[in-house]
Amino acid sequence: MSLLVVPVILSKARAKSAIKHWLRLTGALAVEKIGGVGQNSRQIRSKIVDNRPQARPKEDDGREPVFLLPGSVAILVLLMVVIFAAYEFALDADGKLNLLIWLGFLPVRLVDAASLPGGMLPLLWTPVTHAFLHGSWAHVLLNVAWLAIFATPVARRYGGVVMVAMFLVSSVAGALFYAVLQLNDIHILIGASGGVAGLTGAAMRFIFEPAQAVRNPGTGEVTLYAPKLAGMGEMWSNVRTRTFTFFWLGINLAIPVYDYFVAASPSQIAWQAHIGGFLFGLILPSLAERMLRRR
C-alpha cells in the first residue's frame, strides 16, 4: 500500500464532495481530515490510503518482524558470538592463551614490555581488539544483551557507522582508564563492556528526553522529532536520567568495596573500564552532532 497526502483548498461542502468523487475514481480506502483554516473556506488536508490492486502485492499480515535490531547492531552482536564460539571450540589451551596475550589488553606492557611477547607493539591494536574477546558464554551473552539495548537507540539516531565508532573509541577509553588505575596489573583485560558502557553513556544524553513536537502554524499539524540532545547540566535535571546514571555508577563502584571488605579474593570484573567507557561516552554525542552538522 502507498500513502498519498493531498492538500485541497475548497469550501467545506465542495471539498467533501470532491474527495468522495476522487475516492470513487481511485478505489482509495480512507480519508482522514487533518485540520483547516479560514472563515468562509476551509483547508482540508487528507491522507489517502490507496487500496487499488498492485501488480506485485506486498505481503503484510500485520505482524512485526522478528528482529528489530538495526543491521549494524545485529552484525556487531553476531561478530562477538562467532568470535567467542571459534575461541571456545577451535583452540586448545595454548592457543587460547596466545590469543589472549596478543589480542587482550595488558596494562603491564606500558611499564614492562620486554617481559611479554611482542613488547609494546600489541598496544597499537589491543585497546580495540580486547573488546571482541570474552571469557565465557555468560560473559559474551551478557555483553551482547546490554549492547543490543543501548547500541540500538544510538544507531537509530546517528547511524551504524557512528555507533560502531563510538563503541570502538569507548573501548579504548575504558582500557586506558583501566590502565591508569591498574598500571602494574598482569591480568589480561577482555570484554566488550567498556565499549558498551560508552554507548550507555551516549544514550543517557537523549533516551529519557521527551520527543520534540513542532506545530505548523498554517495547518495546525503537529510533527514529532527525535528527542533533543540534553546538555550535561540538563541531563542531571532529568529524574530518570539521573536515577539510572547514579544506579549504574553505584553498582560499579560497589564492586571494589565488596572486594575489599567482603570477598575472599578480588573479582574479575573490570569496573574501571566500565566507568572509563561510560564517562567518555557522555561526551561523544556532542562530538557526533557537531560533526554531522558540518556535512
Number of domains: 2
Sheet with most strands: 3 strands, antiparallel
Euclidean distance between termini CA atoms: 34 Å
Radius of gyration: 27 Å
Total helical elements: 11
What value does the average pLDDT take? Answer: 79
Number of strands: 5
Determine the CATH topology of the largest domain: Rhomboid-like fold
**CATH superfamily annotation of the largest domain:** Rhomboid-like
Order of helices and strands: EHEEHHHHHHHEEHHH
Q: What is the helical fraction, as a range of percent?
A: 40-55%
Provide the β-strand percentage band.
5-15%
CATH architecture of the largest domain: Up-down Bundle
Low-confidence parts lasting 5 or more residues at pLDDT below 50? 1-62
**Classification by helices and strands:** mainly alpha
List the helices and strands and how they pair.
Blueprint lengths: L2 E8 L1 H15 L4 E3 L8 E8 L21 H20 L2 H11 L5 H4 L13 H4 L7 H22 L1 H22 L11 H11 L8 E4 L6 E4 L6 H6 L1 H23 L9 H23 L2
Antiparallel strand pairs: 1-3, 2-3, 4-5
Helix pairs in contact: 2-6, 2-7, 6-7, 6-8, 7-8, 7-11, 8-11, 10-11
Key features?
globular, 11 helices, Rhomboid-like fold, 55% helix, three-stranded antiparallel sheet, mainly alpha, two-stranded antiparallel ribbon, 295 residues, 2 domains
Walkthrough of the structure:
This protein has 295 residues and is mainly α. It folds into 2 domains: 3-49; 71-293, Rhomboid-like fold (Up-down Bundle). The protein has helices at residues 12-26, 71-90, 93-103, 109-112, 126-129, 137-158, 160-181, 193-203, 232-237, 239-261, 271-293, and strands at 3-10, 31-33, 42-49, 212-215, 222-225. A 3-stranded antiparallel beta sheet has the order 1-3-2, covered by helices on one side. It has a two-stranded antiparallel ribbon with strand order 4-5. A hairpin with an 8-residue loop joins β2 (31-33) and β3. α10 packs antiparallel against α11 (271-293). The protein is globular and about 70 Å long. The two termini are 34 Å apart. Residues 1-62 have low confidence and may be disordered.
